[in-house]
Structure formats: structure tokens, C-alpha cells
Amino acid sequence: xxxxxxxxxxxxxxxxxxxxxxxxxxxxxxxxxxxxxxxxxxxxxxxxxxxxxxxxxxxxxxxxxxxxxxxxxxxxxxxxxxxxxxxxxxxxxxxxxxxxxxxxxxxxxxxxxxxxxxxxxxxxxxxxxxxxxxxxxxxxxxxxxxxxxxxxxxxxxxxxxxxxxxxxxxxxxxxxxxxxxxxxxxxxxxxxxxxxxxxxxxxxxxxxxxxxxxxxxxxxxxxxxxxxxxxxxxxxxxxxxxxxxxxxxxxxxxxxxxxxxxxxxxxxxxxxxxxxxxxxxxxxxxxxxxxxxxxxxxxxxxxxxxxxxxxxxxxxxxxxxxxxxxxxxxxxxxxxxxxxxxxxxxxxxxxxxxxxxxxxxxxxxxxxxxxxxxxxxxx
Length: 379
What we know:
By secondary structure, the protein is mainly beta. The protein has two domains: about 5-280, Porin; about 290-379, Immunoglobulins (Immunoglobulin-like, Sandwich). About 5% of the residues lie in helices and about 65% in strands.
């Protein structure tokens, strides 16, 4: 018997896993609601139904945590899943750092799906620069299945490069684990477990525009015991924002068996709506740290704002009568010949049409209406 004739433990759990998106694209709390169709070639079976997913993430300088949960309902069967991931990071020198990673996931379903739980722990070494980085990680994992427990280990290494509108990531993985072997179309007869060893090469691309994003991933796997020694997988997800926090999402994937978490090979198509994820233009504006500066002219002090990557910058303050004034762009600098008298002034900026905010280099003061504004002092 070869590993290629093995069956993943949970079939319908794959539907939820295939709806995932890169961690980097997730916000604090995001909701996906969709109609999903999946075909499972090992069983020659197809499932179609509504699905929902809730994702949350929290990140600090040293800690990160992400939680996912969801469910899908198809004719004659339902399934659900939950996962929790976390990392503790330790600082280093010369851009190097390390982290301890952990993951716990569980899936359960009706019909032939059964249930499975998987725990994973890893140690990672990372180098991060301004626009690029690399990592090396070793992991160990164990899975509790309906008939037995499966243990394994793996290593992965990769690198990434980022620019203003995208990120590209390349990685290589080597896995050693075990898988359950069943008989019958829907795997009703348990035979035992066999070792599985495979290597993978992965390439991922994340692109953004003001109101759209594209995430695409390709994978090539080599498994000498499989019917096809070299096999490939891919996925693509496109999101189009109709408002600041609502997007239409289209996704398609051809996925290989996930021997660690017990998901089957499947071809998946999904159409849905994503709620509470900010549009890329709003995300970009929120990450910026605009700096306000004074300029000298014959008419007196003027205003200049440095905001790298911004497309538009607007200003308002007591010196404009709180009327909105657009600044003129010159590369990463935005200027306007606004005469500022000596003394302190209250001022707010708006980047790319986002929320009004204080500049990064101005202290916050009360605006007399329960809010905050920046304080600019003119000599």
C-alpha cells in the first residue's frame, strides 16, 4: 500500500480550511459569509452549501495570537472547525530574532466526516529588514483521530520581499508524519497507519490596490509513495471593496491532502462577502506616520507634511477656520501656502480620505468636543 492511496480523516473539514487567507491580510475581527462548492476526487463526491467564518487577531511587539472558527452546511452533512495560533517572540541583534510558535485546531462533522484534533509546536529563527526577511523553523505535531493518534515533525525555511503594493514569499518544507489508511469510497473500513514523507516548494503573492486585493499561492509537492510523485496545488482569492469595510470575495483552489490536519484533496470555489476588513487604502493610511513641518516664506510660516506613500493629504485647523484644505503633492511631501501666525495652533490631517488624525510629531490636546487634536507651535 502506498501513501498515495491514503485517505485524509475529515472530508468536510477541508471546505472550511480552504477558505483561509494569509495572516498578513487579516484584521482584528473579520467575518466571511459565502456559498462554497467543493469536489473531492478521492471519493468522487461534491458538496455545495453556505459557509461562514470568523477570524480575529491580536499583535504586540512580543506576542501574537489568531483565532478562527467557522462552519459549512451542505445537503445531508454539516461540519465545523476552530483553530488557535500564537507566538512569543524574543528580540535579537542585527535584525535577528526568535519565536516559539504553537497551534491547536479541531474539526468535526456529520456523515462520514468524523473528528480530528491537531496540536503543533515550533521554534523559529527570523531575520527582518525594512523590505525583506527570512526564517528557518522546526516543528513537531500530534493529531488525535477517530481510530488512533498520529505524530510527526517537519522543517521549513523561506524568505519574503515587500514593496508598496505587494509582498512575495518563497518557502520550502519537509514533512515526516503518519496517515490513516481506509477502505471503501467513503473510508468506512479502517486498516491502520503508514508513514508519509514529502517535500514542498511554495510561492505566494499578495497584491493590493486602493479598493482591491489579490492573494495567490502555488505549491509543488514531491511524494515518492504517491501515485503521482510530483503534484501541484494552487489557490487564488480576489477581494473587491464596495465600501470601507465590506468586500466581495471570489476564491478558487486546487488543494492537496493535508496529512497533518487530516483534510482531503479537493477542488474548491467560493463566492461571498467579507465584513469588517478595512479596504487597502484605509489600511495603508492607518499605518502611515505623517510628519508636519513649518516652511518659511515672504508671507510667513507655511505648512508641509511628509507622508511617504500617501496619494492625498488634507489639513484643517483653527488657522483654516476648520475648513478642509487640500495640500499639493510633490513626491512624499505635501505643501500649501497657508499663513500661520506665531503661537500654538490646533491641526488635524486626513490621509487618502481616511479618518482625521494628528500628525505623528504633534502632541494631543482636547478639542473641546470630547475628541483630540494635534498641537502645532509656531515660533
